[in-house]
Amino acid sequence: MKISLNWLKEFIDFEMSPEELDSSLTMLGIEVEAIENPAKKYDGFGVALVEEKTKHPDADKLSICKVNTGNEILQVICGAPNVEQGQKVVLGQSGAIVPSGGFKLEKRKIRGVESNGMICSQIELELGNDSDGIWVLPDDAPLGTDLAEFLGINDVIFEISVTPNRADCLSHIGIAREISALLSKPINYTTTTKMQKLETSSKFADIKISDNINCLRYTAMLVRNCKIGPSPDWLQKRMLALGLRPVNSAVDITNLVLMESGQPLHGFDFDKISGAKIEVRKAVNGEKFTTLDTKERITDGDMLMICDSDKPIAIAGVMGGLNSEITDETTTILIESAYFNPSSVRRTSKKLGLQSDSSYRFERGVDIDNVDKACVRAAELIAEICGGIIEEGIIDVYPDIVAPKQVKLRYERVSKIIGLNFTAQEIKNLLERLNFVTVSETDEELIVKVPSYRVDIEQEIDLIEEVARLYNYDNIESDFSSNINFGLSKMLPELSCPSERNQIRNYMSSRGFTEILTQNQTDPKSVQTMQIEPVRITNPLGEELSLLRTSLIPSVLKVISHNIRNGTSDLKLFEVGKCFAKNDSPDNFIKGISEYENLIVALTGLESPLQWSSSNRAFDFYDIKGICEDLIGQLNLKNIKFNTLTEHPVVSKNSMSINFKKQQIGIFGELRKNLAKQYDIEQAVFIFVLNLSQVYKLPKSVTQYTPVSHYPAITRDLAFILSSDISAGDVASTVINTGGELLRKAVLFDVYKDEKLGGDRKSLAFGLTFRAQDRTLKETEIENIVKNIIKKVEVEFSAQLRTN
After folding, report:
1. Which listed site, 41, 503, 626, 797, has its alpha carbon 20 to 30 Å from 51?
2. Per residue in 480-520, pLDDT tens?
């Protein structure tokens, strides 16, 4: 919807710039989508007088003109054949930009003679098609006047977007009311001279409402002896500025009142109404009706029609009929102003695929108390502009008068919702500025009468929003602290662990991984592989989103598949997300449903981009294992062990489980190839899954600072031959635990298998580093520790020290 700044200022006196008004309207909840300032197009152009014309000494077709701008005399070179002394013209001075060419005028010499501007034609100003010569203005054009002001286009137009609940803002008076409340300034409402003395009459027509559910009020006035023709210039300019096409004086007036007050009106040619009768009734099924846009519509029994004694003449609230259209031959006009049920108009408009400025407002709800006032306003304008005579009286059919709404507001509730301590008087003052009338009040609350145009105000929370809106949201400081404890941290530990979650995200991002975000809902096929009973959604959007996911694995595989299809096959991905399963655990937050947070990490493709200086290595098991070990170290988790997975529905035997004591908290390894093929993935995929809901509960080791020792280290290498099914991690743990505080590092640097060792035997070689914090170690100290390590490993794992 478009709003004219000049028109707004006719209702309320304010000095805000367009930019300030934009900011104020936005703060009030009215979005400004665009600001149009047509006057800027003609900056630097104004009305001037040619006081002297002489021939250019070096050009036959050029003239040297002395032009009076109203402030100074400028010399201008002009090539137009029709330029003459004494003419009023449009002069563009240095710095102005010519609309048709987009070039900037500057002082320059033309054939050796200085020129300080340009005398313009209509086509150069984009104000007409005359390109034969300069535009000669009327003799009474005021000298020195800016061109925009001379043309009457010194206005600023705001394109605003109004939310569906704020129908009261779909007019200039509606926006003026908002500015009035903001600035605490009065509104200069348009007065109707006849409104005070007008009486209800039924002399000129018989009006009947047969459906008083969908038509609550219907008013009409009659204007005789009208002369229909083009609207006055000021009215046409106003319509065009607001994006409306001028039709004729009567139709333009109804549109003017619509844009002014927000009340849709319709004018009928009274001589085309059979029997001087109007009936508001339901349509007949299959009835054909031609609207003003010359299209034939087929109505049904749910649509509301305006009919005379013989036929329908309008679709109520949507569009009038061609059979009662006002034309230049019309002399008597019946003005209709009514209140139609918003749902009825919306339903009709949708069925017919027809929306008008009227239906747009009726669908949102108009001011039922303004119906008669708008009718009188239109009648007076038609009488004034079209030279008509108003038939005395107004027909006002209003069988069930709608009482004003009253809403209670508690002061304490306002302060709690907004978060500020308002006094009762402050709340009352803010509401009164918005035209809410206090009916009664106590120390704790007040009851206000809602203005009839505020169809969106129904309950207490609506009034609280009004207080916050007018107080200005920018004045309400954000406070995200809360002392409420719902006791959920024990049931859902992830609620109390945002720092660890962020730590994981930061770690993964710093290692070059891309975070993904996938939906919690999934399809039946995706959950089958996980062998976990899923939770079914009661009212899903479709079968593909009918279950809550039990694992992040299918989600990440879909992302990998999508990327590979689009040409990206080297991927490092991770996601932190929720999973769900049916579970009868007493610890469940929701009975029968287990909710847990998981981390998934996925590697596939090449480890590094293609380059000439190194070989291209694909990701393997040790890459995902390294990520897993490093992250567990970052989280300071204690007593974590890796065990070989013998059988798993998702990962191959080239995988391991992550355990805390006897509790499995995750897995990592290579995805089964048959599962990858289900998602059209032909390359190896390595995943690492960690149950964060369990991790959050685990004990964490405390990181302490230890100064770097200034004393030299002693290194020893030990290799053990033992059974192939013994975990290297178990051996390493034994070595570390036996080494004591002097053993600073134990690294597995070689795993060797050979037939000479035996088919079921392997060799594990560890590099040991010893260092003391306070002294230089002696060989005897180290020898004793090494002997203890050898003995412990040999006994515990039936191992043999390898000597060659």
Report:
1. 41
2. 555 554 444 444 444 545 678 888 999 999 999 999 999 98
d(CA 301, CA 284): 5
Check whether residue 747 and residue 781 sit in a common domain: yes
- Where does 645-730 show beta strands of DSSP type E? 651-660, 663-671, 685-691, 714-723
Kindly state whether residues 509 and 656 are assigned to the same domain.
Answer: yes
Between 443 and 203, the more confident residue is 443
Same domain, 176 and 301: no
Q: How many domains does the chain have?
A: 6
Find tokens 């000439």 and name the residue: 612
Last-in-domain residue among 397, 419, 437? 397
The domain containing residue 667 runs over which residues? Answer: 493-695
268 forms beta bridges with 334
The amino acid present at 427, given as its one-letter code, is: I
- Residue 51 included in any domain: yes
Whichever domain contains 446, its CATH number is: 3.30.56.10
Distance CA(276)–CA(281), nearest Å, equals: 16
Same domain, 257 and 287: yes
Q: Which residues pair with 594 in a beta bridge?
A: 581
In Å, how far are 50, 71, 100, 127, 804 from 131, measured between CA atoms?
A: 19, 28, 12, 11, 104
Measured CA to CA in angstroms, residue 14 lies from 17, 34, 184 at distances of 9, 21, 11
Residues 104 and 29 in one domain: no
Distance CA 282, CA 301 (A): 6
Beta-carbon contacts of residue 631 (< 8 Å; ≥ 6 apart): 504, 507, 508, 690
Q: Is 483 exposed, middle or buried (0-12, 13-18, 19+ CB in 10 A)?
A: exposed
Same domain for 288 and 368: yes
Q: Same domain for 273 and 173?
A: no
Q: Are residues 21 and 163 in the same domain?
A: yes
- Number of separate helices (H) and strands (E) present in the chain: 20, 40
Q: What is the structure's pLDDT at 199?
A: 60
Residue 320 lies in a domain: yes
pLDDT digits (tens, 9 = 90+) for 323-345: 999 999 999 999 999 999 999 99
Q: Which residues pair with 601 in a beta bridge?
A: 574, 688
The pLDDT tens digits for 525-582 are: 888 877 788 888 888 878 888 899 999 999 999 999 999 999 999 999 999 999 998 8
